[in-house]
């Protein structure tokens, strides 16, 4: 059977097998990316509208332009293309895209391609990857309650794990075969109340893993309180309320966590008085001490107790790795994550190691690790968060803007508004864009967290250092959790030696 091969700029693309070859490597493309590249190759040096590409690549499916923007960004990264100085894909504002390289097509038989692969010593499906970042293994997983992931967020994930995190996020996995501690222990004698408790647990789980409003948490709290009216000493319902209120604060980037600290602590102290080894309560105490009270010593103690109580819970280790990262204990965090990946390959799908590399200043590994996730895992805002940040840190304005544009689309910005930002970028680079975001006091999480931290970070890039210091002081006064990373985040290096910044650092735990 003849195999169609496209040739362009030193690349060979085999659409039948979704393989992109260069002299250096061979990459297996995901289906949508291969379909997009196939259509570009069929229509070289032509203006292709977004509608045309959506119909060609997502035929029969109802999707919006965000899906196309994400796919184009992924393809650009695979081709090492730059949005600012494109060699492959040129954006036509308000229209669509233009495939730049001259593209030829040749045909060979399957046997010929196989012989070429064998003579080269490669298998037909070799995937290019960082040798330190093996491909992930898809493992069936159940999901359980909150935990820090980056955000960085929302860390960070979660430095993510700031969900607004990327440094601080709120999703946590359960190991294969491990039951949810709360659900397994919940055995109410009243079937109707048991149903309410189960519904409340489900509402929290859904809210943690989808972009839902706080109404899920409010309804869960209402159901937990119905249970407690009949069984006031039912510890798990108390813990459920504490968890729901913590997660409600996470939606707002923990900016209002101080409102709940006393209440959540009272609930958890009551729960631990009845069950000192309750791992859920211990972990929530750790996170509250960490993010709400900035008591890192107490947080470390509770993390250790939670790990002792639930040694097989992977989510605790993810949260603890982020805690180590914030404290500048990079090697410990790195080793912990590597051990977890050896123990359970499912950990390859979390981006905590990308954050470790970024904070260590090993940007190429951070990019490679994040790109591996983008190529093989479900799309995540955190992927674009970290690549936007790395673009800023490495003065790669095109990378920063590419992923900032994706984040803007995900926020629902109009085409005209995005076009205005792109014009600003063309005139003055990412510095000018961030100056504009600062001037308009943009409150969205566009990869640099949320105000006032985000405004400080925009101001640093824009060179407005006095403004940055003012917003950092405000963030510390508000106990915005993202301020805890000032000690270790390289984004703040332009301010690091100034007396004013050193005074701010002195106000933070370390």
TrEMBL record:
Residues 3-101 form the OmpR/PhoB-type domain. GO terms for molecular function: DNA binding. Signal peptide: none annotated. SMART domains: Trans_reg_C. The keyword Cell membrane does not apply. Residues 110-136 are annotated as: Disordered. Keywords: DNA-binding, Membrane, Repeat, TPR repeat, Transmembrane, Transmembrane helix. InterPro entries: OmpR/PhoB-type_DNA-bd, Sig_transdc_resp-reg_C-effctor, TPR-like_helical_dom_sf, WH-like_DNA-bd_sf, Ycf3/AcsC/BcsC/TPR_MFPF. The chain crosses the membrane at residues 147-165. GO terms for biological process: phosphorelay signal transduction system; regulation of DNA-templated transcription. This is OmpR/PhoB-type domain-containing protein. The lineage of its organism: Bacteria, Pseudomonadati, Pseudomonadota, Gammaproteobacteria, Alteromonadales.
């Amino acid at each position: 059977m003849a195999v169609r091969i496209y040739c362009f700029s030193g690349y060979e693309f085999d659409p039948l097998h979704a393989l992109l070859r260069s002299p250096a490597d061979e990459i297996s493309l995901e289906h949508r990316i291969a379909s997009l590249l196939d259509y570009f190759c069929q229509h070289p040096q032509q203006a292709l509208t977004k509608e045309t590409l959506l119909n060609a690549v997502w035929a029969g499916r109802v999707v919006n332009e965000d899906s196309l923007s994400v796919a184009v960004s992924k393809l650009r990264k695979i081709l090492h293309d730059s949005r600012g100085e494109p060699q492959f894909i040129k954006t036509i504002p308000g229209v669509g895209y233009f495939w730049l390289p001259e593209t030829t097509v040749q045909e060979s038989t399957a046997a010929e391609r196989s012989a070429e692969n064998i003579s080269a010593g490669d298998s037909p499906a070799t995937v290019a990857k960082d040798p330190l970042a093996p491909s992930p293994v898809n493992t069936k997983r159940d999901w359980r309650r909150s935990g820090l992931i980056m955000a960085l967020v929302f860390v960070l994930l979660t430095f993510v794990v700031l969900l607004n995190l990327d440094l601080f996020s709120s999703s946590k996995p359960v190991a294969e075969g491990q039951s949810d501690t709360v659900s397994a222990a919940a055995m109410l004698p009243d079937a109707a109340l048991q149903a309410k408790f189960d519904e409340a647990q489900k509402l929290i789980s859904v809210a943690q893993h989808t972009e839902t409003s706080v109404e899920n948490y409010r309804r869960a709290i209402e159901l937990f309180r119905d249970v407690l009216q009949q069984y006031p000493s039912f510890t798990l319902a108390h813990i459920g309320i504490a968890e729901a209120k913590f997660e409600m604060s996470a939606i707002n980037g923990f900016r209002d966590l101080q409102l709940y600290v006393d209440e959540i602590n009272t609930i958890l102290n009551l729960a631990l008085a009845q069950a000192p080894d309750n791992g859920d309560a211990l972990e929530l105490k750790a996170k509250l001490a960490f993010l709400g009270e900035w008591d890192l010593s107490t947080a470390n103690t509770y993390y250790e107790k939670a790990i002792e109580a639930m040694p097989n819970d992977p989510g605790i280790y993810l949260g603890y790795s982020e805690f180590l990262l914030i404290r500048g204990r990079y090697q410990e965090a790195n080793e912990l994550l590597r051990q977890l990946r050896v123990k359970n390959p499912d950990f390859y799908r979390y981006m905590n190691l990308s954050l470790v590399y970024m904070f260590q200043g090993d940007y190429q590994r951070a990019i490679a690790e994040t790109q591996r996730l983008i190529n093989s895992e479900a799309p995540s805002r955190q992927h674009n968060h970290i690549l936007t940040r790395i673009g800023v840190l490495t003065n790669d304005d095109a990378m920063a803007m590419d992923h900032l544009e994706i984040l803007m689309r995900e926020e629902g910005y109009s085409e005209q508004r995005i076009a205005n930002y792109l014009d600003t970028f063309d005139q003055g680079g990412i510095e000018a864009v961030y100056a504009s975001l600062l001037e308009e006091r943009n409150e969205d999480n566009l990869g640099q967290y949320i105000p006032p931290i985000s405004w400080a970070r925009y101001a640093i890039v824009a060179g407005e250092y006095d403004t940055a210091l003012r917003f950092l002081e405000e963030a510390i006064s508000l106990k915005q959790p993202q301020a805890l990373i000032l000690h270790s985040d390289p984004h703040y290096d332009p301010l690091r030696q100034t007396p004013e910044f050193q005074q701010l650092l002195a106000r933070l735990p370390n």
